[in-house]
Amino acid sequence: MLLDTSVSSQIYVEDCEVCCNPIEVNAQFSNQELMGFEVGELGQ
To answer: Domain range for residue 36?
Structure first.
């Protein structure tokens, strides 16, 4: 998974590499440093 550190907040949906179900990825950056990262299951 590649994340763009120049964007302060990123939310996107990606298929899980293990089970192929959709997951929501939420990452927050400040000064190109990762400040928060959450992954959640969608639709289940």
So the answer is: 9-41
Using CA atoms, how far apart are residues 9 and 41, in angstroms rounded to an integer?
Answer: 19
Flag whether 18 is in a domain: yes
CB neighbour list of residue 36: distance below 8 Å, 6 or more residues apart: 26, 27, 28
pLDDT in tens, 17-34: 898 999 999 999 999 999
**What tokens does 36 get?**
């928060």
Residue 4 lies in a domain: no
This prediction has a pTM of 0.74
How many CB atoms are closer than 10 A to CB 22? 13
